[in-house]
Design a protein that fits this description.
- The chain is mainly β.
- It folds into two domains: 659 residues, Maltoporin, Chain A (Beta Barrel); 89 residues, no CATH class.
- It is 8% helix and 46% strand.
- The protein has a 22-stranded antiparallel β-barrel. Strands 13, 14, 15, 19, 20, 21, 24 and 25 form an eight-stranded mixed sheet that branches.
- Helix 11 runs parallel beside helix 12.
- The relative contact order is 0.13.
- Belongs to the TonB-dependent receptor family.
Length: 939
């Protein structure tokens, strides 16, 4: 459903109807009526560049319609009718009151992106930090998300062909629902359009920060085979991809299809030297085998000086004398198992069929199907005696209260990947309907769609029998609940055989699924003739249902597995009904107004809740080469289904800081041993009665295009959310608790009473882990407000040099000027940007230079990300540059070969203030230089 002209004149009858898709999710869906020439590329600002602004002035918007770089600029007479992203109404050209960024499908490889999610994450508007498949220790390592304007992944609406898809079944960070962008294939992608800013009046709930629409191709000539293979220079990440795309026409029936097969090996942290051994960075070796006197807290010396276990962890295990005694340790415990990039295998398929009925009507069907297998590892198997109980036992052989600890090595378990976690995903998105002419100027569409996401998880776990394997049979229990064993220390210090480990290895399984089903009716066309042009209108009515289930293994917490708690099953559905309308009115030849309104009603959990939103925009052209635009919109978001239907959720944070113990230690936070400890504290989240979020956004901008070879834009934006649904900030709870316990805040104040009640600690005189946080209690709340504003800059310039071909420079820049968050209306209201409280990117810059000469096309792409706080929160990591490069050789009219290199200078971002793995996890990847070679052939 392209923004730009297509080649098939027979599709004229459905030009506008294709833009009005089910459930208010249409985003820049269009068909046009050009002459029978090759399909034109995106608007002028998209020519030979990466993400582009489609809101160029009217008389220049078709300058790139020619496929030849030296073509003469088109005039108004050649412009085709298209639909502007962010609107349901067909317009002339690509103008609109809100800026739109376009990334063409063919540019994904050219700009050095590894996949679709890599490209979306690289958008300058994506300033927010997100966890994903490359984060490692996360709830959703098989999925990726984006955070436009830093407002979180649940505030960006992601569409495929303008239609909603099913959410990822497991919540992001254990909290919010989102769309997974990690399994979107590039085989049939025509372009990716991003509208930043509130758009609920057009698309309904979720579109507070913006909308991402992934548009698949509607027409393909012939059959094309694409093969790609690559790897990382420093090892790991070997990958391969095969794509087959094609199209056909058989009388009234036509269609397109695409299939993509891909595979990727994981990258293990041990494959990167700076994190392959924690002792090389000055850290003490981790405990491999440890035996403590629980009463004194001191280690009891190994019976054989660790000789029996010296071959564990690649021969790195040896006796280590700590302040608490001697234990057997190694710096390779975590690096041996941790994957910094997941392994993945997937099969993706997509297709579309249309059948012309005549008289301007056609039947259509579209489908996307996917299967993915993802594996990762964040830590190897480990065991602590009586971990589910007191943490220690009475050793009848010694009379002591003892705590035994064991980390199992690759040599003991066999293949390292035996302890990988596995995610198996199956997805489908299908739609069918009819569309065509209502009158000479009005078109319609009736459609029904279904989206489904199934996620099966397999998690390796130690069986409860590991206790008996290492301690022997339980002899009894003391009056206070202490277990009694006649435990032989030689058993602890003797490595397990593969068969012994097999006897205590089990697997738990979970099943999560989500769905989204909907029907819609829509129409658009010219309503009235006004002096300055036609008044265009669009209307839509839609209804749908969505739901999710999270089913955990019933054996958890039942004594089958070692140290597990009972899982929580989640089930829920909600229904939605919506009606909306939009008007586009040319007030004068230079001034155009757009107004949209929409009413959405949700029914869930016994509640009926309705919201009305509106959108108003102006476009003013004092001269043909200059566009001034402004827009204001309201938006809303119904509470995430996970918040509504999860009565209680248990999990752990990726890292946590114990501010109270740091204060007790008397050392600065930067030197405290309890800062950013990973994995972090356990938490339990309980549900709550939540209101829908209410958002407002504003935009003010200009686009200047004096010639077809140059354009520039500046857009100011602001987004505000009231009643933000979010978790109570656990880090702030821990800060408050520390201040309250140390007397910085009045212990009897409501804040202190609440904070102290939420943090559970072991007693200071506990035999095991005295004073340690064992649980943080949080719950979702409606925070008072969150707001942010800033500006986007863009420029493109193309020129031709005699004998040196065509050159194009494209630059995008986003600056966050202000970010504020207030949990309660009485909290301090201040701009966090410029302080270490602001943990997202303050600014991002993308620039790429393309040189096309003869049969060769060369591209150099650069990205600059702003400084971010160090792990110790005492300073900043400076701004970071990354460069990608690609070269394509058009061997013949049908065949091309290309080479792409990601991270040309082989730079890896490190953070000397952090603990292992010593880099800013989630912000940057530790992969180093990666490269691919690609063959493309059209039959």
């Amino acid at each position: 459903m392209p923004l730009t002209p297509t080649v098939d004149p027979a599709l004229r009858a459905i030009a506008l109807a294709a833009t009005l898709t089910c459930l208010g999710s249409t985003l820049a869906l269009a068909q046009t009526t050009p002459s029978p020439a090759p399909a034109s590329p995106a608007p002028a600002s998209a020519a030979a560049s990466e993400p582009t602004r489609t809101a160029a002035p009217r008389t220049k918007s078709a300058d790139a319609a020619s496929s030849t770089p030296n073509a003469a600029p088109a005039t108004d007479k050649t412009l085709s009718t298209v639909v502007v992203t962010g609107s349901r109404i067909s317009r002339i050209g690509s103008e609109g009151p809100s800026p739109v960024t376009v990334l063409k499908g063919e540019d994904l490889d050219r700009l050095g992106y590894r996949n679709v999610s890599d490209a979306l994450s690289g958008l300058t508007q994506n300033t927010g930090f997100t966890q994903g498949e490359d984060f490692g220790n996360t709830f959703t390592p098989a999925a990726n998300a984006i955070s436009l304007r830093g407002l979180g992944p649940n505030h960006t609406l992601v569409l495929v062909n303008g239609r909603r898809v099913a959410d990822y079944p497991s919540p992001y960070n254990g909290s919010v629902n989102f769309v997974n962008i990690a399994n979107i294939p590039s085989a049939l992608i025509d372009r990716i359009e991003t509208l930043s800013g509130g758009a609920s009046a057009i698309y309904g709930s979720d579109a507070i920060a913006g909308v991402v629409n992934i548009v698949l191709k509607r027409h393909v000539d012939g059959v094309t085979l694409n093969l790609r293979a690559g790897a990382s220079q420093q090892g790991g990440g070997e990958n391969a991809r095969a794509q087959l795309t094609g199209g056909f026409e058989a009388g009234a029936l036509s269609g397109v299809y695409g299939v993509e097969l891909s595979g990727r090996q994981p990258i293990w942290s041990r494959q990167r030297d700076f994190m392959a051994d924690t002792t090389l960075q000055g850290a003490a070796p981790s405990v491999v085998i440890g035996r403590r006197d629980a009463s004194s807290g001191r280690y009891l010396a190994p019976t054989d000086g660790c000789d029996a276990g010296s071959g564990l962890f690649q021969g790195s295990t040896s006796a280590y004398s700590s302040r608490s005694g001697v234990y057997c340790g190694s710096g390779r415990t975590s690096p041996s198992f941790w994957t910094t990039q997941t392994g993945n295998r997937s099969v993706q398929a997509a297709g579309a069929l249309t059948y012309a009925l005549g008289n301007g009507l056609e039947l259509f069907a579209e489908g996307q199907f996917g299967w993915a297998h993802t594996e990762n590892n964040t830590r190897g198997p480990s065991w602590t005696s009586q971990a589910a109980g007191l943490g220690y036992f009475r050793n009848a052989n010694t009379g002591l209260l003892e705590t035994w600890t064991r980390r199992f090595s690759p040599e003991e378990i066999g293949d390292i990947d035996r302890y990988n976690r596995i995610w198996q995903d199956s997805t489908h998105n299908v739609v069918a309907g009819v569309r065509g002419d209502l009158t000479g100027t009005w078109t319609f569409e009736l459609s029904a769609s279904s989206a489904y996401y199934l996620n099966k998880t397999t998690t390796p776990r130690l069986l409860a029998s590991v206790e008996q394997l290492l301690l022997g049979p339980r002899l009894g229990t003391e009056a206070n609940g202490t277990a009694i064993y006649a435990a032989d220390p030689a058993r602890l210090f003797t490595p397990l055989t593969n068969a012994e480990f097999d006897s205590v290895l089990g697997k738990s399984r979970g099943r999560n699924n989500s769905w989204n089903q909907q029907v819609s009716a829509s129409a658009s066309g010219e309503w009235l003739k006004l002096p300055a042009g036609p008044l265009r209108a669009a209307v839509v009515a839609e209804a749908g249902t969505q739901g999710l289930t999270n089913v955990t293994d019933p054996r958890l917490g039942q004594g089958v597995f070692y140290n597990t708690t009972e899982g929580t099953n989640i089930r829920g559905t909600r229904d939605r009904f919506a009606v909306g309308a939009e008007l586009n009115a040319p007030i004068t030849r230079q001034l155009t107004a757009t107004v949209a309104g929409r009413y959405d009603r949700y029914h869930f959990d016994g509640r009926n809740e309705g919201k009305t939103t509106y959108n108003a925009g102006l476009e003013f052209r004092p001269v043909d080469s200059l566009l001034l635009r402004a827009q204001h919109a309201t938006s809303f978001r119904a509470p995430d289904m996970n918040y509504v239907f999860a009565p209680e959720t248990r999990g752990y944070y990726s890292s946590s800081t114990d501010y109270y113990r740091c204060a007790q230690s008397g050392v600065p936070l930067a030197q405290c041993d309890f800062v950013n400890v990973s994995p972090g504290f356990n938490f339990v989240r309980t549900g709550g009665d939540l209101k829908s979020e209410r958002g407002r956004s504003w935009g003010l901008g200009t686009v200047w295009q004096p010639t077809s070879s140059f354009d520039a834009s500046l857009d100011l934006w602001k987004v505000r959310i009231n009643d933000l649904v979010t978790d109570l900030d656990a880090d702030q709870v821990l800060r408050n608790e520390a201040d309250c316990r140390t007397g910085k805040q009045e212990a009897t104040s409501p804040v202190c009473v609440d904070a102290i009640s939420r943090v559970t600690r072991n007693p200071d005189n506990a035999l095991v882990r005295p004073g340690e946080v064992t649980l943080v209690r949080v719950n979702p709340i409606n925070a008072a407000r969150e707001s942010t504003w800033g500006f986007d800059l863009g420029a493109r310039y193309s020129w031709t040099l005699q004998d040196w071909g065509r050159w194009t420079l494209d630059v995008k820049y986003t600056q966050v000027q202000d970010y504020r968050y207030q949990q309660s209306s009485g909290d301090r209201d201040y701009n966090q940007v410029g302080t270490t409280d602001f943990t997202d990117w303050r600014n991002k810059l993308n620039a790429n230079l393309t040189w096309k000469v003869g049969a060769w096309t060369h591209t150099l792409a650069a990205q600059r990300n702003s400084k971010i706080p160090q792990a110790d929160e005492e300073g900043y990591l400076p701004a970071y540059w990354n460069f990608n490069g690609s070269t394509q050789w058009q061997v013949s009219r049908r065949t091309s070969v290309s080479l792409t290199v990601n991270n040309l200078f082989n730079k890896i971002r490190k953070d000397s203030t952090s603990s292992w793995p010593y880099y800013p996890v989630g912000y940057y990847f530790p992969y180093g230089r990666q490269g691919w070679i690609e063959l493309d052939h059209r039959f």
